[in-house]
Specification:
Blueprint (H helix, E strand, L loop, with lengths): L3 E2 L3 E3 L5 E10 H4 L9 E3 L9 H21 L11 E5 L6 H7 L6 E3 L6 H14 L5 E8 L1 H8 L15 E2 L2 E8 L5 E7 L14 H20 L8 E4 L3 H14 L8 E3 H4 L12 E2 L1 H17 L5 E5 L1 E3 L3 H5 L6 E3 L1 E6 L1
Parallel strand pairs: 3-4, 5-6, 5-7, 8-13, 11-12, 11-14
Antiparallel strand pairs: 1-2, 2-10, 3-9, 3-10, 7-9, 10-17, 14-17, 15-16
Helix pairs in contact: 2-3, 6-7
GO molecular function, one term: acyltransferase activity
Protein name: Stage V sporulation protein AD
Organism: Anaerosacchariphilus hominis
């Protein structure tokens, strides 16, 4: 099989492996359905820091250190030291990342894919390992409810009413160490996403903004690899929520693909819609990252699932462009994760 697949996909000839994963989540996330699966739950929303932004940086540093420590504890010859770091967040100039990973002293590739960032990080990290440019890399991302609301919407003290289409930004961080051996899950393929804009201007309906991009990437992936939805145990999007999920299933059906039986969404999985007031579900860079680390990846590692299409989704929302009346484009990156 060729490395270059179809119009925009990649097939990894020597699939890099996910050798360790770490999830650090906030208290609200810890009270949800996946709470018992997270490595750490931080009950203090400030994480002992002075600002929301510093708190997010602290969560990212903890997840990174935990993932690397897990990799060091693996039996056998062990995983080589991490050489490069691929990370990003939602804040301007990636300040949660730059201040969070500064003490790690690792060369950094700063990434911005909005809430799809962990997909971009895993994809680029896998390309780096397969290309022989590093024996081990770290893929990382984070988000925080307080810092995201402060930057993109309203001060928390404002107390504005949230519509039912709104999602709740996940507080937490997810980290993954990739290497050429040592894991029970491997990245066998990827489909980088394109920017897709259906003209949606509602910043409180991220699902509607991102669903067209998710459809575009999923359909491109299936076409490039010549596969059908049933070739996957699960097709998991990042944070479309209940509103975006319905739109995605309708859009893919129009393209000739029925993904309703395989589709799951991290934004729906992470919160309890009955017990937790999160409206459409969860969102933020950490939503798909911590859900992958704590819930999805173990299903692949155990062999319960053989193959998953992991499709983190991102709304490319800017306060500048939004205040100037522009729409909110979306992007989605697809990563194929299989059992070793």
């Amino acid at each position: 099989m060729d490395t270059i697949m179809g119009k925009q996909s990649i097939c990894f000839q020597r699939p890099p492996q996910i050798v360790s994963a770490a999830s650090v989540a906030g208290q609200k996330e810890g009270e949800g359905p996946l709470g018992a699966l997270f490595d750490e739950i931080e009950k203090d929303p400030m994480a002992g820091q002075a600002t929301w932004e510093e708190a997010e940086s602290a969560l990212q540093k903890r997840a990174a250190l935990l993932a690397m420590e897990k990799a060091r504890r693996l039996p056998g010859p062990g995983v080589p030291p991490v050489r490069y770091l691929f990370s990003g967040d939602l804040l301007g100039q990636l300040i949660a990342t730059s201040f969070g990973v500064m003490d790690l002293k690792l060369p950094l590739f700063g990434l911005y894919g909005a809430c799809s960032t962990i997909g971009e990080a895993l994809m680029l990290g896998a390309m780096t390992v397969q290309g022989g440019y590093s024996e081990a890399v770290l893929a990382l991302t984070s988000s925080h409810f307080g810092s995201a609301e402060k930057q993109f919407r309203f001060p928390l003290g404002y107390g504005g009413q949230r519509p039912k289409s709104a999602t709740w930004t996940v507080t937490g961080s997810g980290a993954f160490v990739l290497s050429d051996s040592g894991g029970h899950a491997k990245i066998t393929g990827a489909t980088p996403g394109r920017v897709v804009d259906y003209g949606v201007k509602d910043s409180m309906n991220m699902g509607a903004c991102m669903a067209p991009a998710a459809c575009d990437t999923i359909c491109a992936h299936l076409e490039d690899f010549g596969r059908k939805p049933e070739d996957y145990d699960a097709i998991v999007t990042g944070d479309l929520g209940t509103v975006g999920q319905k739109i995605l299933i309708d859009l893919t059906a129009e393209r000739g693909y029925d993904i309703s039986a395989q589709h799951q969404d991290c934004g729906i999985l992470i919160f309890d819609p009955e017990a937790q007031d999160t409206h459409s579900g969860g969102s933020g860079c950490a939503c798909s990252a911590v859900t992958l680390a704590a819930y999805l990846l173990p299903k692949i590692e155990s062999g319960e699932w053989k193959r998953m299409l992991f499709v983190p989704t991102g709304a490319l929302l800017s306060t500048v462009s939004f205040n100037e009346g522009q729409s909110v484009p979306g992007i989605a990156h697809a990563v194929v994760i299989e059992h070793c």
